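Example record for the data management plan.
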Amino acid sequence: MAGHSPQPLSIDVPLCLYVDLDRFAGLPSEQVLSDEERERAESFRSPLDRQRYVASHLALRQALSEYTGLQHAELHLSKGSFGKPSLTGHARTQFSLSHSQGLALIAIGGRGPLGADIELMRPVPDAAVLAAEHFTRREQEALAALPAQERDRAFLTCWTRKEACLKAIGVGLLVSSQSFEVGLEPDCRSVELAVAGRILWLLLGPAPERMDCVGSIAEWRQTEARAGNASHSGRLLEAHA
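Corresponding structural encoding:
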């Protein structure tokens, strides 16, 4: 992919933090969360799942308030056609929230759409089966070649990198996770996704390192018209500058 990334490999996430959902204490949810969020919270049968959902969304709103300077009452979130949330009236504020059990990852930036994903470290006994369904052939072979004690972290690293990219572009299941390469290492790289006759360019990298989890962040930077589908001059179109 050399020569195809016109931007430095630096994701715009000035605010990136982990949140312990089981210890988080914020404003009462009825003062902060939307009606939709409160209804969603009530739909959880498990009290622990409900509490963690509420805590993650309160933490997100607190982070957005700190980042934008807006009061909680001024934060209005809306969803795109595939469910990706955005801050109404503040298109330059991009964010993503992910949580795994009691730990959440929040990323906020001011450039391209963001995708964040987190997984707590754990054994993954069916890693080979899942990799065959979701990873590229080269990623599957790289995973199989690793020593057994390294496979769980490598699998979760690749998994969160795939999810972060898909969350950044926000098109649901329209893109197969096997159609693009992210690798098993928590490196920084540009990633190419083909969607609806265009090439989407993303920057992908690790979240701040922790021993108890794996986290990844992706930022959608540019869009390029595919040769043959539109007049192609070789110029990249800044979709989210």
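Summary line stored alongside the record: The chain has one domain: 15-225.
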